[in-house]
Amino acid sequence: MSDIEIARKATLAPLAAVAAKLGIPEAALEYYGKTKAKLDLAALPASKGRGKLILVTAINPTKAGEGKTTTTIGLGDALSRIGKKTAICLREPSLGPCFGQKGGATGGGMAQIVPMAEINLHFTGDIHAIGTAHNLLAALVDNHVYWGKSPAIDPRRVTWPRVMDMNDRALRDIVVGLGTGNGFPRETRFDITTASEVMAILCLAKDAKDLEARLSRIVVADMKDGTRITAADLKASGAMAAILKDAIKPNLVQTLENNPVFVHGGPFANIAHGCNSALATTTALGLADYTVTEAGFGADLGAEKFLDIKCRQAGLAPDLAVVVATVRALKLQGGADAKNLGTEDVGAVERGLANLTRHVENLRKFGLPVLVAINAFTTDTAAEWTAIEKACAAVGTRAIRAMHWAEGGKGAEELARAAVDTIAKGEAKYRPLYPDDMPLKAKIETIAREIYRAGSVSFSGPAARRLADLEAAGFGKFPVCMAKTQYSFAADPALRGAPTGHDVPVREVRLSAGAGFVVALAGDVMTMPGLPRVPAAEAIGLDSSGEIDGIF
């Protein structure tokens, strides 16, 4: 049975009953249909403390992903099964991968959130609102230039792109303003909405006031003398905040086992900071004893950004990290052919374990205890599982097989008990990888050295000049958001396993002044993905009863 068929057959509880598990009154629910709601934060009960925070991350994945979202859901359901008051916090799916290569992002098998198809498509419209607010600012920039308004923007120095929530490589580099009366012709680009600074701002804002303040700080262009032009200079932030009035409110849905899930914000971790909204996470921590959240792609990307950007800005301190590993991804990291990942190959698993143990070592640098969740597949063998368990034991970490895809929360109860026991030891002493006052260049080099185990970082001329300019302008205390391939510790996706001594080539640096970080693009990573030869969109449609079918 496919994921979407399982989701259709699910028995959904009234959302008010799901909310009540966290003490959320129905008066705080703003319904979007019967199965989705936004939270009126002002109507929530006063927090009586802060629960424990569990971060779910992963090894470097295959192109299909390794079940990080599925494991987050399964662990949350399992914690609820063993009597813990639990909330799950996830990112919102993007239409780009849904119609592209990776598919949807609502879990899988018996560890899903529902309504699956609606969440994967338009949901409550948050990503659409983010794209609209972003593109409003782009339109205001070009309009400002067209009318020659003050302050005078140098049209050659406009840096604010446009966005759309779709994979479309044809829009990576474009020319706008062609034709009589249509403005000043200039080169620009489209990014995918998940890479938008507006997305990052929404995900890091503390409240509506902070949202508008951050929007006002967005840098969109320069004047001829180099003076920066912001959204506040264009009087744009108020209208942008108005568009995002509802989008800033966290969304509530449920798992197949009727447990509460906050799904809010959707930045990608390979090109953005990869975490759900700080507002959803802090809200969950005030309501639940345990909050389980995820950070996108491998721990070298999502977890590093969660710990160095989100936790730093939101004042969070995780109590545990869970690294998801699969036999198939370990085989790939160990040099196995991608076509043979379903065949037993203990040797490839053992070679790939260097990738897993490095992620474990890296997470300990942030002061976190670590567990490994083996997301089990039917093609796995006992010998392959044993190899993983022995390697983890050798580095002082417990590896636990989790069967949540097939069995739901029941299949992850051992993982849940291990998480509770580990947290109870009180060993977590969260610390970021680098201090605020470290120069931007040194921050990039620290991430490359400590997390990627690179031997060097090379900066293109424009990137080096940009870093120096940002330091001089007072942005040197910002954390760094690395944009890099998710398939390797290196910037080269072909370097599998646990490479060392490689170079990380930083080709471009972008300022996200409103979000409060600097983006460093390494290697060939693109902020507008392309579709594969056979897009998932080709299989999606409506069935004979008018229901959405084909999403996986």
Your description of this structure?
The chain contains 18 helices and 24 strands. The chain is of the alpha/beta class and 552 residues long. The protein folds into 3 domains: 3-124 and 247-318 and 394-417, Rossmann fold (3-Layer(aba) Sandwich); 126-241, Domain 2, N(10)-formyltetrahydrofolate synthetase, CATH 3.30.1510.10; 440-522, Formyltetrahydrofolate synthetase, domain 3, CATH 3.10.410. The strands form 6 sheets. Strands 1, 2, 3, 4, 5, 6, 13, 14, 15, 16, 17 and 18 form a 12-stranded mixed sheet that branches. Strands 19-21-22-20 form a 4-stranded mixed sheet. α13 runs parallel beside α14. The longest helix is centred in the N-terminal third of the chain and has 21 residues, at 126-146. The mean pLDDT is 96.
Unreliable residue runs = none
The largest sheet, given as strand count, sense and whether it forms a barrel, is: 12 strands, mixed
CATH topology (fold) name of the largest domain: Rossmann fold
CATH homologous superfamily assignment of the largest domain = P-loop containing nucleotide triphosphate hydrolases
As for the number of domains, it is 3
Helical segment tally? 18
The shape, in one word, is globular
Q: What is the oligomer described by this structure?
A: single chain
- First-last Cα distance: 11 Å
Average pLDDT, to the nearest integer? 96
* Gyration radius over CA: 23 Å
CATH architecture type of the largest domain: 3-Layer(aba) Sandwich
Structural class of the helices, strands and pairings?
Answer: alpha/beta
How many beta strands in the DSSP annotation? 24
